[in-house]
Design goal:
This protein is α/β, with parallel strands linked by helices. Helix content is 44%, strand content 21%. It is built from eight helices and twelve strands.
């Protein structure tokens, strides 16, 4: 697997190169987004890891540029931990956001997760699936039927659309804007209350009493779907 690391701090690129290479990755590096675009076309990386603040072209501009021609997983690294910066990066097309300082172990886990998700998405696209199996959930797309923990669940059309969007992106943070646009279309982006109410309704239908919710809130950012029950109250 090929990784492209984009960061203007040489110490970070050297450390990440060494760690990723020791785990079998082929690593290329760039010092800014413009340089990264040139290298991207040459090496065709399987995943892109980019800093947010860089000269010439920053991480957000790079993400937007890459998204015009590729769906390669993008992980953004940044010392900025504000919700506004996370939302900006994710809405620009990034798949994950890691705040500096971070552990290499955590970053490697996120890299593996994004690569697994992409392989799964590629397999689904090739087979043109009519259903999605994710953890405790089986979503029959054509029939608009959902089975959770082996029992059929009756959802409203909007509840189904929301669950389908979450299931297609299981484990990934989806911003409020992405979810609103995906369920209600472009006209729904300015109606955050719609999403809050719909998520609450869906949680009531799918969650088990005393168990953590399948739909995890990322405050001020969005939601992450975890298709397995993580834990139950004692």
């Amino acid at each position: 697997m090929k990784v492209l690391i984009v960061d203007d701090e040489r110490q970070i690129t050297r450390a990440l190169r060494a760690s990723l290479q020791s785990h079998g990755f082929e690593v290329s590096t760039a010092a800014n987004g413009l340089e990264a675009l040139d290298i991207f076309s040459e090496v065709a990386p399987d995943i892109l890891i980019t800093d947010l603040s860089m000269p010439v072209m920053d991480g957000v501009e790079l993400t937007k540029a890459v998204r015009k021609f590729s769906d390669v997983p993008i992980i953004v690294l940044s010392v900025r931990d504000s919700d506004a910066h996370k939302v900006l990066a994710l809405d620009s097309g990034a798949d994950d956001y890691v705040t500096k300082p971070f552990s290499v172990t955590e970053l490697l886990a996120r890299v593996r997760a994004q690569l697994r998700r992409r392989r799964g998405a590629a397999g689904e696209a090739a087979a043109e699936p009519t259903s999605i199996c994710a953890g405790d959930f089986l979503v029959d797309i054509d029939a608009h039927r959902v089975t959770v923990r082996g029992a059929e669940l009756h959802l409203s059309p909007k509840e189904f659309d929301l669950l389908l969007l979450l299931a297609r992106n299981a484990g990934r943070v989806l911003t409020h804007r992405v979810l609103l646009r995906g369920v209600w279309g472009p006209g729904g982006e300015d109606q955050p209350d719609y999403l809050r109410v719909l998520v609450a309704q869906l949680r009531k239908r799918i969650d088990l009493p005393g168990a953590e919710s399948y739909i995890e809130s990322e405050p001020w950012v969005g939601y992450r779907f975890r298709p397995e029950v993580v834990s139950t109250a004692s």
